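Q: My collaborator sent me two sequences in one message, no labels, and asked for predicted structures for both. Can we handle them in order? The first one she listed is below.
A: Yes, handling them in the order given. First sequence, followed by its structure tokens:
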Amino acid sequence: MKILYSISELSHLPGPLFLAIGVFDGVHRGHQAVISTSARHAHSVDGTPVVVTFDPHPAKVLRPDDAPHVLTATQHKIALIRNLGVAHLLIIQFNREFAATPPEEFVSQLVAHSNPLREICVGHEWSFGKNRAGNLELLKKLGARFQFNVVGIPPVTVNGNIVSSTAIRRAVEAGDLAKAAEMLGREYTILGTVTGGEKLGHKIGFPTANLSAHSEQFPPNGVYFAEAWIDGVLHHGVVNLGFRPTVSRGAPQRILEIHLLDFQRDIYSQDVELRFVRYLRPERKFDSLDALARQIDLDVRQARELCAA
């Protein structure tokens, strides 16, 4: 997949261009419908489909103190879009300057750098431009002016529920990972980068890798049996998500850490894609490190049984 980082780079692609535009946080079934429809229309006339998205999530720029957790950090989103077979991805840097762009000017830039622009495909509620003044109705008017088609994808529903990033985020937060998976069209995973920790796990015989999860949405605190992909290889482990009440000092800090079964390599600074497979127990405070170690040993035994099953 070729990744572009400026609208002007569209001019290097053979036309006609078909653009699927959106934030695409989660790359869920609704987003997949936008992307696949655009690709299908492009291929029917030997055109070039391009997925257009933004980094970071606009809410982090427009309302940083009230921005939701994301379902997919940018690197994770890129990987998921690549897995859909997308050949061209344009990632536009979303900052205050870009947010101030009038919707008409944004579309004019797309038209000016496409040879030519044949179609824009978006979700039915997509908004864009300064003060989010652009919507599907305005986009259709601009399409008539600049002679490109506009496709608005209607809501996608699963079991009577409209698929949306907000609905998926709420399901994950509530621990309903099955519902989240139904709306995503895949199991919910997060992408974390291994960071340095206090190495307390080594001291009690269960070394862990601390994961910085790039503001992705977590399920409820607790201990989980988990799957972890490292360099494309599947591993299993026990995850602790929470405040580590037995060993924490100072201000409480929510930490995501995983003990990988039968794993010895140093993976500091590497990315790990993590899936919460089974909730094992709530997090709790133990009277001593020995008591904590005994409980972790039980957690690991349960994880091995789940692997065998």
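Q: And the one she listed second?
A: Here it is, processed independently of the first:
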Amino acid sequence: MGNNSADQFFPRSPRPNSRVSADAHARPARGRMPSSTGYLVAAIVIAIAVFVGLWWILISGGDEAPWLPAGLASSVVLLVALSAREVIMRRAWTRYLLENGIQGKSKNRPGETTRSQKRAFSSSVHSAALRSIQKQSAVAEASGSTPEAHLDVAHLCHDYLASTDEAIRSGSLGSEKGIAVRAGQERVRALHKHHFLTWARLQSRALTYEAQQRARTFDKIETAMKALDCLDSASRVYPDEPELMESKVAIGEFIASVKVAHWVELAERSAFKGHYRRAIDRYRDALFYLNQDVVKEDVRTAGTEKIEAEIAKLKTRLRPVSAAGPGYEQ
């Protein structure tokens, strides 16, 4: 991908030393083959440990039914692990393929692997990884796919690019194989950009819609800020995408409108109770957020005129109230 800022989202895995001696051939591969059964066993063990630990804490605290919250907590842990199993195992297999290939099928004795065989092996591994990424890309494009499916493909694309970059720098590929790998890199870069931007678009839309459904002002703003964070992360990788900038402006306008509506509502409540000075102050707070740069000029102008008209009305009401004597208005 070539952008250093993306490393915080897609950390690279350490690669083994390219120099292989006869002793190194005799040792088992560093990477362990991913096992779905092992993953399930580990998840069950963790769930049991959570149950026992929480049960012990609760029974020590005098809880009459410690098994109930302990069982609930362990069930949640197990359900989360099972729901994430497919994504985790899929990424583990792709990384294993990139880093270790299919060494288990090799029957060569120590020292028999030639340089040309290594090159062919490395190229075949990357070709298999490319096919796997393309297959998962097609699955992510299916109707009803989640934003996380696109983000997962983007992660795999980054891992592929990191692996092939190292293979090219190490000189383990021949000229013809290197050309094929570079062609694969171009396809993967295009896939990475498409899926990463798709994730940012879908995730930000979902969060913005969720923010609109929230009842409290704080919850609206907090959820909208999460949508803005998604777009910011994509902008750091692809800063020249106009769609990202347009979406960020739209969400910024939404956040400003929520704040303006909040202060206008507070001002209206204060005016209804006869607290005119307080209402004027809150209208001015609304003007502050209305005059942010993210708000469109026509919206800002219309809103400012309306709020200033309300402030003028309150000032006319404030004069006779002030003439009634100090302490009349709170």
